[in-house]
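The following record pairs a protein chain with its ligand, S-adenosylmethionine.
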Amino acid sequence: MSGIIEKLAGTGDLTDGELASLIGTDEHDGELYKTADEARRSVYGTDVYIRGLIEFTNYCKNNCYYCGIRRGNEKASRYRLTAGQIFSCADTGYELGFRTFVLQGGEDPHYTDEMICEIVSGIKRRHADCAVTLSFGEKSEESFRAYWSAGADRYLLRHETADPAHYRMLHPASMSLEDRKQCLWNLKKIGYQVGSGFMVGSPYQTVANIIADLRFLQELRPAMIGIGPYISHKDTPFRDFASGTVELTLRLVSVLRLMHPYALIPATTALGTIAPDGRERGLKAGANVVMPNLSPTSVRKYYLLYDNKICTGDEAAECRHCLDARVALAGYGIVVARGDVKTREAKKVAV
Ligand code: SAM
Ligand code: FES
């Protein structure tokens, strides 16, 4: 094994210089994937957890320059799901073996805290053995506490980039990295399983930015880490930027797995969008989660964060069966379980 990978696997860390050289070459890729896969197998075996993604609104008050559902995109057709529609997505998902539902959307003030709490507690009442994950942007600590009291278990909020100057290049001045980070710390304090992450190959991103992302994640120690390639969208200010690559994304999935052996790391839809076998390759590089879509087929084509998003025409059941086959072919198996994060302590008890 090359010294640098051995060190990363053994200590979970590298110097900035070592990280830069590992990220900057494809020389170690095969060995890196293999070592990351061994690390995931030692904690999670071949289990793959599925999360049913319910994209409940594509209205957003923000104007992130990279995002297809940004407020300023007048070409986007907007929709909102009612609580009843969300419950019916969850019911379909439950029948298909999903035990985690992820409510994701733009930052849409139409949904008051009261409405969100009713949706969360409604799902929990119907499916008490399921986890509810929320992912609709920055909220006050008070709001996060209200959702938690209503039964929410997890929250996904990518930090997007840990470098303040880079953050300002990706977002309008009304948004700040400090606010976003504060949300993540608040969520942790409340007790959520927290997810964060970043886009790979976003406009203006440098290797130093990526190292800052890795350092921030080491500090935050999230339960879930979501990274996927940036993919350009034709109706955003970043339409002319190149998308991120599969190779760099996979390399970073492996680095993150070795830094965070216990984390839940998805093989993202964006990875499956830039390469037909992207999600399978993600699993083989250390990912252990997939997040198929449970949104009603009628609205899927409107939740377009980037161009050419996959699975926008399929029924939930089709996606589920397609994924079963893909995961099995890659050498893993989907399990029907909530799929909570494992911890070193839990492993010690189990041994
Ligand atoms: N509004 C919530 C938030 O800001 O966290 C959740 C929805 S947001 C669309 C979910 C994630 O999509 C973002 O965190 C971002 O990383 C990713 N995303 C947005 N535009 C993208 C693009 N063009 N390519 C790849 N990922 C993108
Ligand atoms: Fe709000 Fe993308 S700008 S979800």
